[in-house]
Amino acid sequence: MDQRQKSEYQGFSWHSLQDQNSIVYFAVTHKDFPDDICSRFLKQITNQLYQNEADFKKDPQNVISLSQNARISIHELHSKYQDHKNLDKTIVAQSTLEKVTGMMKQNIGKIIDNRNEFNDLENKSGNLKDTASRFRMNSAKLEQQAKWRNLRMKLIILAMIVLLTITIFWLVY
């Protein structure tokens, strides 16, 4: 797992890359030099050293100096990457492809998250619909019960008035 870092100082960018064996590679560029191209340069140096240098394959921590072939390959890479505007079209295309792929992966992740949230909302709205339906039925029952109670109360009051009226007429006559 490679770790990249960048810092800027007085118009220059200091790029570093730490490989899986904790070996750090540095490159100094102008501030406007693209970060992804410098990172690709450092990664290619790392890959070439591990592929072509026998000492790097065995014990990279104890390598004291690089062979002439390693130095030549690093100089060739430096020449290739020195003018980033005239770089090989495949490198630029691959860099663009990696950016687009990363964005697509993020978008797919967001789509999946949105789909899960949509499913949750759909379930919650279904539950809310069921609750509203039960509430409507219960409120209709309660309304009916209240009407019957009201009617009974009115009938009881009417009966009491009639009884009171009969009692008063009976006592008076």
From TrEMBL:
Keyword presence, Transport: yes
V-SNARE coiled-coil homology domain segment(s): 89-149
Domain of life: Eukaryota
Keywords tagged on the record: Coiled coil, Membrane, Protein transport, Transmembrane, Transmembrane helix, Transport
TM region(s), chain numbering: 155-172
One Gene Ontology term, aspect cellular component: membrane
Pfam families according to UniProt: Synaptobrevin
PROSITE patterns: V_SNARE (PS50892)
Protein name: R-snare vamp72-family
Taxon lineage: Eukaryota, Sar, Alveolata, Ciliophora, Intramacronucleata
Gene name for this UniProt entry: Contig3110.g3329
